[in-house]
Amino acid sequence: MSSHREAPEIAKDPVADSSDLYAFVTPDRPDTVTLIANYVPLQLPSGGPNFFEFGDDVRYEIHIDNNGDGRPDVTYRFEFTTEITNPNSFLYNTGPIDALDSENWNRRQFYSLTRIIGGKQERLARKLPCPPCNVGPLSTPKYGELVRQATFKLSTGERVFAGQRADGFFVDLGAIFDLGTLRPFQQLHVAGKKIFKDAGEPVNATDRMNVHSLALQVPLGRVRRRAERYHWQEPASVIGVWTSASRRQVRVLGDRAAADTNAGPFTQVSRLGNPLFNEVIVPMAQKDLWNTLPPSEDKRFAQFVERPELAALLPVLYPDVFPNLDELNKSKKARADLVAILLTGIPEGLIDGFTNVTGDVQADLLRLNTAIPPASRPNRFGLLGGDLAGFPNGRRVTDDVVTIALRAIAGLTVPLVDRKFQPDAAAAAVTPGLSAADVTAPFLRNFPFLGTPYDGFNNPSVDS
Questions:
Q1: What total number of domains does the chain contain?
Q2: Which of 60, 182, 423, 424 has the fewest other C-beta atoms within 10 Å?
């Protein structure tokens, strides 16, 4: 969660594993959209001497669909190369790294950025440097300055950064995967009531972990299709975003005389649109397949959105807490509310002043209505909290997507499509109990928004 270890095969390949995706109209630059795709999840900050990095053999892409067909109209492609400056040292650095060209830094990573529109490729930048990992106060004493040096404004209007950041996702993984326990309600759990007398304190399992982020700030004119005006009711205002990672189809392991080689066309091994889609909706046996497919093929997974397994489990795990949801499940009615939220977008008329519908094609896209301005006072529950600029209208870094998803699955959003349905009282209260305040590294007020990565020297795990 959100997509840190969501499928059996990609869990073995973290360098290509997309863990979180964000898309939102930039608060301090509302004529742009910010897109952030995280990879290489669950990084232990002290994990040297081979600190974490992007894969030179992985093609990373952020895709934008602006006509609702579930296929990319605009793609930003990142490709990386790594250079070792001192082949006779085992160290990541031999002294303080005070600049991106520091002679003390032994393993540097660079990337090129390409924009693809209608099959035509335009190289926007070559050999842009990434910052180093945040090793510690002696090795990276002014990390914020290194990030500033590694943030670039391109002549084509984009702002770009690629490098390590603090993981901003907050989730109680240990509890949720222990038979669906929600610590604030653990005493009501079918098995937990035998063990717990009171509610428990949630634990943010991803706190003090790092990720590697691809961050783009793009002028809206670069991602939206042309229209006479952009208004919240105009289809041209809505974009769908997803990220993917691809590898060559063939890898040949070298021997004493030859290095490893990769050959053949690129094939997709990971993707991510809405948070938790592959994690919670797609069955285990199909998770790896889902990772290889484009969003335009997601109709084949619609049955799992219409009748999600978790919705059936909640009344079983929490007896007598979700009676109305239990009755809805037994009726076998398809969950049209979840289909709208996850696969088509929410049509006009269901929420006052809002739509992010993209059409009839069912596709897992992070849909964003770019004509809805950033909220002056964001609500972490997004649309469920009356904040039209929040998830599932795109996703901001502080949105509580786990709680929003749980409440939707628990039936809170059913009245959008069935006014007669009365959600259980618990549906509006169910939560793992975490918020952005449970992320130790403060979020930034501007690009790249995710906090400074935790350094290995000060990471508590080294003292435990």
A1: 1
A2: 423
